[in-house]
Write a structure and sequence with these properties.
heterodimer; A: mainly alpha; MetI-like fold; 8 helices; B: 4-stranded antiparallel sheet; 11 helices
């Protein structure tokens, strides 16, 4: 890429990167707010686990372009492309977070949970002092997978006009300009790599030796 | 004065109808150590766990200080009872000090008081607080973990201590050391203790009273001095089976 290209598109790349971050970050916030409590609830009602994790799995199998298409005609949601993008990305992020929260808590040594009950910890104390800290590494692993997936899928959101780095890629494909494709793809890949590395650090930081 | 713990016609059945405890009636006085002996699956752990409602009675009642445990608030009931198990169940993400002080933390006691109490209890179970307070459970040996588990059970100064095969996973030497320490400690603290064990020698050494449980029923209830001399066939069969098991495990170690 020449310096002329960068001086022409640099500002736009920066703006679209921020937009991309906003779409992904917003979706991850919603997905975490839904999926972590859902994963915890499943540990209390395990008979629902297969159904709920199965449903999240089905969401994951819907091709992203089709998902954006399905959401487009919906009232309120369809009025703004960013809303569609955030809802779709949230749906894709649910599965790894729910699954890992559930598996992380279910994988805790039963003796530890037994003692937590027997010592008279309340349900809330048990959750926040024992279960979530011991499952944290698993939960961060789920967040990591979900974030990397969302950074990638967010490039497709440009197809419905939600912005983000996909806009450069689509424009580059349409005009057969590989420089534009790379101007979208490289920052998207870097975002995914940074997210992966950062959340990987957190995952290791919260790993508990037993 | 009501009994510290009373089992009144206690029955526990599984949802499938299998009887785990069969109409047990028994009163335990304040301050004694009652050892519950029995083979695996005899119901001894189930009996212990009805006291803190980790297992719910399906018939009859368990009374603590004359009050049905089902009428008590579950959280405060459990906080009045120490609980020690073979696997220790130490919280692997907490330091030794925080593990010991967790019940106090759950009760909202201030940090300084918790730390001081933790250190007192570590000393009481034979661990140097300066050396061990900041360690994590994976940095401890099996015996040290059990000591921490015991200190944690005593943190809120509960009048009742429930111990489920606390030394079952330890090597014979560590086990003997722990038994000495516990005997000295319990003699000093005067807690009402229910100790589940399959180790006859441990029951004789630590117990003031020995219960033998078979198929969910108490078949013997005697002080240690009378237990060994009793001509009761169930006791004789248990002693022979225990000694045979000991001999076989010695043989296997050679």
């Amino acid at each position: 890429m020449t310096s002329g290209f960068l001086s022409q598109y640099g500002g736009e790349i920066a703006n679209l990167t921020v937009e991309h971050l906003w779409l992904t970050g917003g979706a991850m916030l919603f997905a975490t707010a839904i999926a972590v409590p859902a994963g915890v609830w499943l540990t209390r009602a395990p008979r629902w686990a297969t159904a709920v994790i199965g449903a999240a799995n089905v969401l994951q199998t819907i091709p992203s372009l089709a998902m954006f298409g399905f959401l487009l005609p919906l009232p309120w949601l369809g009025e703004r492309a960013a809303r569609i993008a955030i809802v779709a990305l949230t749906a894709y992020a649910l599965l790894p977070i729910v699954r890992n929260t559930y598996a992380g808590i279910r994988g805790i040594d039963p003796a530890v949970l037994e003692v937590a009950c027997a010592l008279g910890l309340t349900n809330t104390q048990r959750l926040f002092k024992v279960e979530l800290p011991l499952a944290a590494s698993f939960i961060f692993a789920g967040l990591r997978t979900a974030t990397v997936t969302c950074v990638g899928i967010a490039t497709i959101a440009a197809a419905v006009g939600a912005g983000g780095l996909g806009e450069l890629i689509f424009r580059g494909v349409a005009s057969v300009d590989n420089r534009l494709v790379l101007a979208g793809a490289v920052p998207a890949a870097l975002l995914a790599l940074f997210a992966d590395a950062g959340l990987g650090l957190l995952e290791r930081r919260f790993r508990v030796r037993v | 004065m009501p009994a510290a713990i009373e089992f009144r016609d206690l029955e526990v059945r599984t949802p499938q109808g299998r009887v785990l405890l069969d109409h047990i009636s028994l009163a335990l006085e304040q301050g004694g150590v009652t050892a519950i002996l029995g083979r695996s699956g005899s119901g001894k752990t189930t009996l212990l766990r009805t006291v803190n409602r980790m297992v719910e009675a399906t018939g009859g009642a368990v009374l603590v200080n004359g009050r049905d445990v089902r009428e008590a608030n579950l959280i405060s009931l459990r906080r009045r009872m120490g609980y020690v198990i073979q696997e220790t169940g130490l919280f692997p993400h907490f330091t030794v000090e925080r593990n010991v002080g967790l019940v106090l933390e759950a009760e909202g006691r201030e940090r300084e008081g918790r730390a001081q109490r933790s250190r007192e209890l570590l000393a009481a179970v034979g661990l140097d607080a300066e050396t061990f307070a900041r360690r994590l459970p994976h940095q401890l040996s099996g015996g040290q973990r059990q000591r921490v588990g015991l200190a944690r059970a005593l943190a809120a100064d509960p009048p009742i201590l429930l111990m489920d095969e606390p030394f079952g996973a330890l090597d014979p030497l560590t086990r003997a050391e722990m038994q000495d320490m516990v005997r000295e400690l319990l003699g000093r603290l005067k807690k009402t203790v229910l100790l589940v064990t399959h180790d006859l020698d441990e029951a004789l050494y630590l117990g003031d009273r020995i219960l033998l449980v078979e198929q969910g029923r108490i078949v013997a209830d005697l002080p240690p001095a009378e237990f060994m001399g009793s001509g009761q066939p169930e006791i004789g069969a248990y002693i022979r089976a225990f000694r045979r098991g000991q001999a076989e495990s010695r043989e296997a170690r050679r």
